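User: hey, got a sec? need DUF1453 domain-containing protein folded
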Amino acid sequence: MSGPLEIVLIIAAVGYVLARRLLGEPVDARRTLLLPAVLTGVGFTDLTKVAQSPVSIGFLVGTTVISLVLGLLRGASIRVFEKDGVVHLRYTVTTLVLWAANLVVKFGAGFALGLADPKAEHAASSGLMLTLGAGLLVEGLAVMSKAMRTNGRMTGAMGRGGQAVALSPLLDGFRDRQDRHGRRGR
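Assistant: Yep! Here you go:
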């Protein structure tokens, strides 16, 4: 999938994530790590279906690196806190600014690639899912790192209304082992 429909779907998905996370929601391991990993994988698979020029590969590598850095900065800017014994996250104004910068860079790079190599313009849109997924994955890793340093429980599944319906024994067990060995920072 690529082109205008993909762009509209991605913008809708990003808008949905932004709205939920601005209001605050429990840290859900699947949403935080698994979905971005799948998005990255689908984006990579899409890239293998399109012939890439050296110019488009350079743009893809550059925008991916920028997305990774901005994802890490977004993760650092996210507020992680406990509510009713469950770890929550909330986007901040800084997080939104970093999201805007990420989208401007990606779409600006796609536009610049179209000017530099008109034949590679399609390749730019095919890398959108890869760079978005990679940035979200790094953001998720940063959030999970923060969440592991709290005393709250992490969710493994979410129900309607964003309520935690199952805790994540794997993540809580990992954090408890870190506590026993004195490795977890506060």
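Quick note: The first strand starts at residue 25 and ends at 26. Let me know if you need anything else on DUF1453 domain-containing protein.
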